[in-house]
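User: I'm writing a tutorial on reading structure tokens. Could you give me a worked example: one chain, its sequence, then its tokens, then a sentence or two explaining what the tokens reveal?
Assistant: Sure. Here is the example chain.
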Amino acid sequence: MSQHLTLALAQLNLTVGAIEANTDAMLAAAGRAAEQGAELVLFPELAITGYPPEDLLFRHDLYQRVDAALARMAAASLHTALVVGHPWRQDGKLYNAASFFYQGQLLGRYFKQLLPNYGVFDEKRYFSAGDGSCVIDFKGHKLGLLICEDVWEPAPMAGVSAAGAELVLSLNASPYHRGKAWIREGLLAQRSKENGLPLLYLNLVGGQDELVFDGRSKVFNAAGELTQSLAPFEEQLALVHLAGKAPVAAEIRPALDPLAEVYQALVLATRDYVNKNGFNGAVLGLSGGIDSALTLAIAVDALGAERVQAVMMPFRYTASMSVEDAEEEARHLGVEFNIVSIEPMFDAFMGQLAPLFEGTERDTTEENLQARARGVLLMAISNKRRRLVLTTGNKSEVAVGYCTLYGDMVGGFAPIKDVPKTLVFELAKYRNTLGYVIPQRVIDRPPSAELAPDQLDQDSLPPYDVLDAILEAYVEQDKSLEELLAAGFAEAEVRRVIKLVDINEYKRRQSAVGPRITPRNFGKDRRYPITSGFGKINW
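And here are its predicted structure tokens:
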């Protein structure tokens, strides 16, 4: 392989099911790449349908549109080769495939060999596994194709090496979570080094329901050394130049600060969910607390101040500082800000319920009614103005059910649903380093739902640093009661947290979708039964 070769990595933000629009975006990128001298353009895994298409793959009419899109890609390959991911039906089976088109012809089609079926992945529900390597001779270069999970285990790359590949092209839709970038980079370097092959790793970017794809496509030489990397959380079209077998060194993006990485993931996920679902903007309840403060900052950074509305809905227990802090943040961020008291609504509800509540004591019913009055207001604004309600609950609260169904859980998207409370504080501090928008008093004051006089979260919950540590062990690592006690946690607190997590599964099933930023979110990652006696022994 002595000739030079110029390839392009098209790190695109695509939309599940938008087959024609995705194809348009790929062809536009291919045109730009060709103008810059690219001889071959790579697109991500299942780029034509978007990833993950889920049960759309069961629809027969999907494949008519996929076939039409593939015909368009083939027709556009007259002078520039195109490698694209897509579903493919053959011999009564469905495959996760990659097709290599050049001069209007199909030069090769590869079927993904390793189908992930863990965490958020469910590919064995849909696809059959391929059982062979694919190496294509293109302009004197022997190019091997792989798809995503194929590079996470040694066998597929070893197989393509044995089949004569001199360069490996890997198409990916690898979702983000904290810490994954380092794991991924180390593994890719290992694959290149152990096979003595350069590796081009192209990843999808964008938000898709609870998943966030971080891009960060990479190029490695045969020694496993990183020679080029693309932007995190952004679309990018980048040329990769090969001189013989070796990729020419090019730009390597510096690693993101861990807090910046999480924040960018949340912003991208929020932007794509609102925009891809056709909402005019977003509305949220701004309470003067830390969670809604961070959510508002994320919303503004995602959508722009002109598309975000914040509503402060005070009650008799709302501290004056909460109103002041909410107003200050709204002013800093430049959003539309309204103050609407829920007092008249609450009194009207209580007046109607008085005969039904006669002889009963005041309890959480009245607290929840406050939250539900606020939910009614937000949903009315949402319906009238086509603005999506953003819920503001964090992972710690969602885990233990410290939230109200049809109240503060009302909404269509939950930007910080997978963010533990301790991380909420860190992200708020980080956001202020980009420009002061969250009042320092909001960060410093003890958290409170303000549903009762002098109420604090820690009246009914362990301190958040303790709670988050227990939750990480129990929820994300599946640690047992015995293991938690052996780790030094207090038995009473552990039993209380375990019980709260277990009995609140029904709430989480009804909660809004939110972006996944940990290895184990409350969604596809964790599928526990609502009705279960398994954990009661630990209560």
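What the tokens reveal: The first helix runs from residue 19 to 35. The CA atoms of residues 305 and 335 lie 5 Å apart.
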